[in-house]
From TrEMBL:
<dbReference type="InterPro" id="IPR011042">
    <property type="entry name" value="6-blade_b-propeller_TolB-like"/>
</dbReference>
<dbReference type="Pfam" id="PF13181">
    <property type="entry name" value="TPR_8"/>
</dbReference>
<dbReference type="Pfam" id="PF07676">
    <property type="entry name" value="PD40"/>
</dbReference>
<dbReference type="Pfam" id="PF00691">
    <property type="entry name" value="OmpA"/>
</dbReference>
<dbReference type="InterPro" id="IPR050330">
    <property type="entry name" value="Bact_OuterMem_StrucFunc"/>
</dbReference>
<feature type="repeat" description="TPR">
    <location>
        <begin position="68"/>
        <end position="101"/>
    </location>
</feature>
<keyword id="KW-0732">Signal</keyword>
<keyword id="KW-0998">Cell outer membrane</keyword>
<dbReference type="InterPro" id="IPR011990">
    <property type="entry name" value="TPR-like_helical_dom_sf"/>
</dbReference>
<dbReference type="InterPro" id="IPR006690">
    <property type="entry name" value="OMPA-like_CS"/>
</dbReference>
<dbReference type="InterPro" id="IPR011659">
    <property type="entry name" value="WD40"/>
</dbReference>
<protein>
    <submittedName>
        <fullName>OmpA family protein</fullName>
    </submittedName>
</protein>
<keyword id="KW-0802">TPR repeat</keyword>
<dbReference type="InterPro" id="IPR036737">
    <property type="entry name" value="OmpA-like_sf"/>
</dbReference>
<feature type="domain" description="OmpA-like">
    <location>
        <begin position="527"/>
        <end position="641"/>
    </location>
</feature>
<feature type="signal peptide">
    <location>
        <begin position="1"/>
        <end position="23"/>
    </location>
</feature>
<dbReference type="InterPro" id="IPR006664">
    <property type="entry name" value="OMP_bac"/>
</dbReference>
């Protein structure tokens, strides 16, 4: 549920009634008593005496049962009171009693809208098609909106005939413990859920967190006393590792506009005091509904600031190399429309954007869409289909890193003034999963190999085919924990760096398999005599000793390490498996070690600080009992002397 949007629409609705009713002229009746009752009803509306207005309009239609304007006003009052069945009944009586009345076009439009809201698309289409030829050609904007509504009804009729196989399952009462809960966001490992919730008794939106423990969601708790206040906080997004949070705060803080975006960082179990994200992100208008990329360095959000294409648009800001947020940019008219475009969610793959819109072809109101990043542009958005989308507003979808599960709020129309919603989980149908590039994650704890002390270390993920970094982050200083998202395609290196320690390098190849252990604890060796480490991202062709290009990333890191520790000498050692002749393996290992040594010398490392040794198959890392083990034994090691 988007409570910001609900209250805005309600305010506009009341204002529309108040201003519209006094513009009525040329009534469809000459019955003076009916006219008097009608005018008394209008006066009661102006004074916000709703019950009296009901009575007067009811008396007006009793005096003349063909009084189109009185039926119309009853329809508006019933719609305001969320009695949509009675609203439809009175709009239909208004139109049928006098199709030439001044309110006839408005009655047709509201009938089309209400039948769309009910999901009765054939009736909605019929009324809208009656309305279209009645609109003067000069009212082009109105004509375009009616045509879009007709197209939505036609789209919905087709979608309902081809439903997706989804079964929303409500999350347990430990989470759905409030009158309404919405805007879920999860960490990459799906073990921490943060969401917005409120009870209507105090109308205070706050952020709550639930942990997955012992195979179940724990009781939701207030996220932090530093974050939640007596004002409204909500619509949050968390980075993949759960340690960077961006959320919306409205009033009561150091804000630039009506609602601003704030950032907070977690260390251990504690969140830092929130900080306004500043003028590069926030404006003097309404800024809300953030979505952080997996690495926390790209932020999508919604704003109605100047420069928007429609009412509310999706904007994006990125961090530069120094960690500063750059001036937000509109994502463009492929995504944004002249209507509301809301609740962006950027998938962990960084390429798939989900969002809610009432400007693209859908089932009426706000539907959920997806678009793929194509260079600097986006693909044409695709409607996610029925019954993910229905006649109700759909917002705030979260898709897990593996592309298999979805979480969102499912509205419940209980007939009360305020809608309620629960958080639900769905398994995405295969047709949608196939459109999402799946990602996986690595998680673990970084420790000192000697003392087991938890360490805050820098982790850098590098795509080996381009030698370009695709993510950089720190493990938690208190817990040593980290989470890293990996796209399941291509080859990657993960480097773990901390001053005073030998860097750790890991290699992941997704070109042929998606299999990957998700928990990987990392021990860093302090730089000292006899410390050694395997270089996992040094590559040679079979039976060759020429370094392959993707080796340069790791070798350059070794150069930096050696230059920062100039007093230490190192041995570069080459090792092989047991395939082939012993003598040939010894020569091959020696040549490979020497090739690495020469690279380091060419990069400025003194030759007297390096020696190269080849050990052939004599020092296996693991027994040569399988192809996988033999692969581990073919390696280059570095040892401090």
């Amino acid at each position: 549920m988007n409570t910001f949007r609900f209250w805005t629409l309600l305010g506009c609705f009341l204002g529309f009634i108040t201003s519209e009713v006094f513009a009525q002229q040329n009534l469809s009746t000459t019955n003076k008593k009916a006219i008097n009752a009608y005018q008394d009803g209008l006066q009661a509306l102006q004074e916000r005496k709703i019950d009296e207005a009901f009575q007067q309009f009811e008396e007006a239609v009793e005096r003349d049962n063909l009084f189109a304007e009185a039926y119309y006003q009853l329809g508006r009052l019933y719609e305001q009171n969320r009695q949509f069945g009675n609203a439809i009944l009175n709009y239909e009586k208004s139109y049928n009693s006098n199709q030439e009345a001044g309110v006839a076009n408005s009655a047709l439009q509201f009938l089309g809208n209400l039948y769309m809201r009910k999901g009765e698309y054939q009736k909605a289409k019929a009324y809208l098609e009656l309305l279209l030829p009645r609109i003067p050609a000069a009212n082009n904007l109105t004509i375009q909106r009616i045509k879009r509504s007709i197209a939505n009804a036609e789209f919905a009729l087709r979608a309902v005939e081809q439903p997706l196989d989804i079964k929303p399952i409500a999350l347990p009462n430990t989470i759905n413990a409030f009158d309404t809960q919405y805007f879920p966001t999860l960490t990459a490992d799906r073990e921490t859920l943060i969401f917005t919730a409120q009870n209507y008794s105090n109308r205070d939106e706050n952020l709550y967190v639930s942990k997955w423990k012992d195979q179940q969601w724990q009781q939701a708790q207030s996220l932090s006393e530093l974050i939640n206040t007596s004002q409204n906080e909500g619509t949050a997004s968390v980075a993949a590792d759960g340690r960077t949070l961006v959320f919306t705060a409205c009033g009561g803080r150091n804000s630039l506009g009506s609602c601003d975006l704030f950032v907070s960082y977690r260390e251990g179990n504690d969140w830092s005091k929130p900080v306004n994200m500043g003028q590069a992100v926030n404006s003097g208008e309404w800024d809300s509904q953030p979505s952080l990329s997996a690495d926390g360095r790209t932020l999508y959000f919604v704003s109605d600031r100047r420069g928007s294409i429609g009412k509310r648009d999706i904007w994006v800001s990125k961090q530069d190399s120094t960690g500063q947020w750059q001036k937000a940019q509109n994502v463009g008219n492929i995504i944004n429309t002249t209507e509301d475009d809301l609740s962006p969610f950027i998938h962990a793959n960084g390429q798939t954007l989900f969002f809610s819109s009432e400007g693209h072809a859908g089932m009426g109101g706000l539907d959920l869409f997806m678009s793929q990043k194509q260079g600097i542009n986006w693909s044409v958005p695709q409607n996610l289909g029925y019954p993910i989308n229905t006649q109700d507003d759909q917002v705030a979808l979260f898709i897990t890193a593996d592309g298999q599960k979805g979480y969102y709020s499912l509205e419940q129309d209980t007939g009360e003034r305020y809608k309620k919603s629960k958080l639900v989980e769905i398994t995405l149908p295969g047709s949608l999963q196939a459109k999402i590039q799946a990602t996986t994650y690595l998680k673990g704890i970084v420790t000192d190999a000697k003392t087991q002390q938890k360490l805050s270390a820098e982790l850098e993920l590098v795509a080996l085919n381009s030698s370009q970094p695709v993510g950089k982050f720190l493990s938690d200083a208190q817990t040593g924990q980290y989470i890293s998202v990996l796209n399941t395609s291509g080859e990657y290196a993960l480097f773990v760096n901390k001053q005073g320690y030998f860097f750790k390098s890991l290699h992941f190849d997704f070109s042929q398999t998606h299999a990957l252990d998700k928990v990987l604890n990392i021990s860093l060796e302090p730089i000292q005599k006899d410390a050694k480490e395997i270089l996992n991202n040094i590559f040679f062709a079979t039976n060759q000793w020429d370094l392959q290009p993707q080796s340069t990333t790791e070798l350059d890191k070794l150069v930096v390490l050696l230059k920062s520790n100039p007093t230490l000498s190192v041995e570069i050692s080459g090792h092989t498996d047991d395939v082939g002749k012993d003598a040939d393996n010894l020569i091959l290992s020696q040549k490979r070690a020497k090739e690495v040594m020469n690279y380091l010398i060419n990069k400025g490392i003194p030759s007297n600080k390096i020696k190269a040794e080849g050990y052939g198959e004599t020092k296996p890392f693991v027994p040569n009992t399988s192809d996988e083990n033999r692969k581990l034994n073919r390696r280059i090691e570095v040892k401090f002397l």
